[in-house]
Amino acid sequence: MDFGIRANRGQFLHQLLQVLFVGLTLGLMRTVVPALAETEFGVPRGSFMLLGAFVVAFGFVKGTLNFVAGRLAELLGRKRVLLLGWLVALPIPLLVYFAASWAWVVVATTLLGINQGLTWSMTQTAKLDFTRADQRGLVIGLNEFAGYVGVAIAGVVTGYLASIFGAREALLWFGMVVIGLATMLAWLGVTETLPWARDEVKRQTDATVQTLRPRYPSGVSAQPSTAEMFLLMSWRDRRMAALCQAGLVEKFVDALVWAFWPVFLHQRGVSLSGIGWIVGVYGFTWGAAQFFTGRLSDRLGRHQLNGWGMWICGVGVGLMPLGDGAAWWSLSAAITGLGMAMLYPNLSAAVADIAHPAWRASAIGIYRFWRDLGYGVGALALGAAAAAGGKLESSFWLVSVSMAVSGAVLFRWGEETHPRLNPAH
């Protein structure tokens, strides 16, 4: 079978379109819902833990489904798991439209977590199946570029639509169109990529086709069990553990952006469309810069970009409450987005570098389990910090310090994973 982006251009573009729809679906809940939690959905002012409840639900559900998706993909195939994810998403716009209380929003976000865990995992895994090892940074960069540009676009568009038509109507019609189109295109246009992964396993045993020598973990079974994989990723291989903890902590940033940035800005008199643009600066910077940072890691390596990305992102978060005005907040959002662009695709690429193709989908699923668990852990921690400090700003400081510490751990425990730059002996 042929490997590489050019050899599989049509399917690569189909998968990029799918992840764009995944991002648009996530963006459906990112601007309007938290900003209007008090006026539209009855969340009492100052109820920081209740406000963060929908992000907590999303994080724990998405993290678990990432893990499940990785194992299911090796049994059922990538396309079936992708389609299942879209079917789960169909009720989300209706639940938000008819929401009688914040509990309905939490249920909708739980379904969103299932959708994101299944669909985003599969778009990434499928592209890694049929592309080459020396393209992984570019591939994941493009994948996350498409997804988070979708998140940013949805945040801006739903902000404007809500101002014109009302919050519930805007989210209903936007969501129905996006999810409906995505489901139809997944059914008609996406090809099953599991055969490519199986062919890569065969190539690993053929010395005549091996050009790179990744530093795979030692002592792993040919067909590792779920327990063996979980222990390997979470603790036994120090490099994988470093990547997993960094993934978990960096999601504190996105939990903050999702749950508290719109509220922080709304309390300072910013309109819904203005909130959409400021949060959009974060998303657009993150999404667009990944187009370059993913490719850059294929040339310079993952490790330095990951570590410095953690620190730069933490600085961006800490800047937001220190100033005032749209220009300052947009600058803070841009710095935060740049840090995320440096680390986000390249943490995943580092995992893919040193995960054997026989169990790569499971490894990516477990990494994404820990990473997206950060939504839930982060939202709980942020709510507790804001409640203890009596103000939203306390949550910003918690995230900034956490990113600094996690980046230091990543530098200490991790290493360069690119097989060309640090090959196995």
Folded structure, characterized:
By secondary structure, the protein is an all-alpha fold. The protein has 19 helices and no strands. The longest helix is centred in the middle third of the chain and has 30 residues, at 136-165. The chain is globular. The model has no long low-confidence stretch (mean pLDDT 89).
- Which runs of at least 5 residues are low in confidence (pLDDT < 50)? none
Structural class category:
mainly alpha
User: What is the chain-wise order of helices and strands?
Assistant: HHHHHHHHHHHHHHHHHHH
Count of runs of 4 or more consecutive helical residues = 19
First-to-last CA distance: 28 Å
Q: Characterize the biggest β-sheet.
A: none
Radius of gyration: 20 Å
Percentage beta strand: under 5%
What fraction, in percent, of the residue positions are helical? Answer: over 70%
The rough form would be described as globular
Overall average residue pLDDT = 89
Number of strands: 0
Summarize the structure.
This protein is mainly alpha-helical and 425 residues long.
Defining key terms:
425 residues, mainly alpha, globular
List the helices and strands and how they pair.
Blueprint: H1 9-27, H2 32-35, H3 37-41, H4 48-51, H5 53-76, H6 78-89, H7 92-97, H8 102-130, H9 136-165, H10 167-189, H11 194-204, H12 226-236, H13 238-259, H14 261-267, H15 272-300, H16 303-319, H17 326-353, H18 360-389, H19 393-413
Helix pairs in contact: 1-8, 1-9, 1-10, 5-6, 5-8, 5-18, 6-8, 6-10, 8-9, 8-11, 9-10, 9-15, 9-17, 12-13, 12-18, 13-17, 13-18, 13-19, 14-15, 15-17, 16-17, 16-19, 18-19
